[in-house]
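Discussion board: Methods & Data

I've been asked by a reviewer to show the raw model output for two of the constructs in my manuscript, not just the figures. I'm not sure how much to include, so I'm pasting the format here to get opinions. Each protein appears as its amino acid sequence followed by a line of discrete structure tokens. Is this the kind of thing reviewers expect to see in a supplement, or should I convert it first? Here is construct A:
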Amino acid sequence: MDPEAIYKYFPDLSQAQRQQIEKLGPLYKDWNSKINVISRKDTDCFYLHHVLHSLAIARFIAEFLPELQVKMTDPKSEVSVLDVGCGGGFPGIPLAILYPQAKFLLVDSIGKKVKVAQAVADAIGLENVTTMHSRAEEINQKFDIVVSRAVTSLDNFVPWVKGKYSEGILYLKGGNLDEEIAIAQKKCKIRPSSIFQKEITDWFSDSYFQEKKVLLIK
């Protein structure tokens, strides 16, 4: 479990951010021995498969949403982010490390996974993260963006968070998504111009990211 996979693509992290990232590996390894938070086969590739994958959203924001990027790094803006179906804390916790000025709410319907996400956030001193054992439909707040990592099909997910964001949804998903996007557009009445997908391999060259994408739903 080598955090160098992160530093290769994010060389400008502060010393505090690097320390937080380096603590993630041992923490998740320990929690995974008690609760199956991440796939056992992913343990050796933890930083690549979970941390770096989550941070693809940050690369997308920096390249395609420059105004949001400015807000995310401005201590006065108080950008809010909702992570739906966070599991043990992905993509929310890596993003919260990268954007300490933004405020993150991580929610999941499985209580024990939320417990892990909160424990990890506390252990590495992430003061910008709160967690909630809840379904997305039960959240009554509005956020700047919603993030998630392949918790369900798009046509299921979009209604869960309808009315809960102002900027858009950033969704990590793999495979050929053309049919899934077409179904979501029809069922959820989304204009074709409101969905954009970007190949993660355009930023991260590792073979693991072949066919993995970041989706923006405005």
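Construct B, same format:
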Amino acid sequence: MDIVSTFETQALKTVASLKEDLKSIRTGRASPSLVENLIVETYGGQTKLRLVEMATIMVEGASSISISPYDPSVIHDIERSILKSPLGLTPATQGTRIVIRIPSLNTEQREKYIKVVADKIEEKKVTIRNHRDDARKNMKNAFEKKEMSEDEKYRLEKEVDLRSTKFMKEIDVIRENKESEIREV
């Protein structure tokens, strides 16, 4: 039935959104995903582009990122965007490229980022629970309109509950992995 596949689609989008959100949380390790979605105002404020659209972003070693803009004239705009961002990173221009050293996190910062991860995880779990509740309401309405039998309603409810549990477990694994990444020294 459509209700289960709709729930599945919504839950998959929620998990994908969570993974995207968590990419931008610092772990003390260099990763292009840390900066690739930064919005850069360039060409006198005429254009706003994501950094990944205007430069090659590479990791150099475990603790630095190298950014090589396709157009060297925007290097100062990129630098300004990195400095303005909430990431707390300091870019250093070296000729036609920018190098960012990723400092290791102190214990206080690690705990702060773990709390941010926990908040994002809980937000996405609530979203999945809401999708599950919507699916149940749709089943109840279909049953009351005699569009499905009681047995079918019961079977679909079990199916949605099983899938919901599966997604919750997947989110917990994502959380554990991100937290161990953050705690890694």
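Answer (T.O., handling editor elsewhere):
This is acceptable in a supplement if you add a one-line summary per construct. For B, something like: Residues 8 and 84 are 38 Å apart (CA to CA).
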